[in-house]
Amino acid sequence: MAIVLAVPARALEPPTATAWPDTLAGRLAALALVQTLNSELLSHPSATLTLDRWCADHRLAPAGTKIVADRVKDVDKPADTAVREALQVGPREKVAYRRVRLRCGERVLSEADNWYVPALLTAEMNAVLDTTDTPFGRVVQPLSTRRRTLSAEVLWQPLPRGWEMGAALPPASDGPLVPPPHVLQHRAVLALPDGRPLSALVETYTGGVLGFPWFEGR
């Protein structure tokens, strides 16, 4: 005998995509996702490849979209003493500079300052970095670099410190929850397998990492 289960009509309806609500639930979700991204970045050697996965998992662009590095041209930040110390190079050794915005489709997810030692790269890699917008992490992937994080700072706290212990919560509003321009910042060094530093990075992650809709009814 066939058994027919009665399923409420609402359960058959697909979730409805809306703007993120400025409520406790919306802020909790934002907090969890920022911390998740932070953890993913800390536990993987390439920020570019991590953002590739984040872009795909959260459907921030059409399927198959890869992170693109839009170079910010006509900007130069000579390597200061701190950068040269991190790269373990002397005052006369050449250090190149690249500033990029890492973009998933039309959405900028990260702004990065990158100082690197051209002498540790192949001529082909240097040419690609000089003449294209290919992300640094994708260019140097064949070198099997290792990432060492110097600092990781959460720039946005959707809930106040001590919220879990009864601190006053922001009042809910009728408007959407809008992340600030920047939500995370990492400082890191990429090194070759033998330990030689290759690149010093300052990466600032934007509110665009939460640029996917809120799904009601989930």
From TrEMBL:
SUPFAM superfamilies the record matches: Chorismate lyase-like (SSF64288)
InterPro entries: Chorismate_lyase_/UTRA_dom_sf
Entry GO MF terms: lyase activity
Keyword Lyase: yes
Keywords carried by this UniProt record: Lyase
Name under which the protein is recorded: Chorismate-pyruvate lyase
Species: Xanthobacter agilis
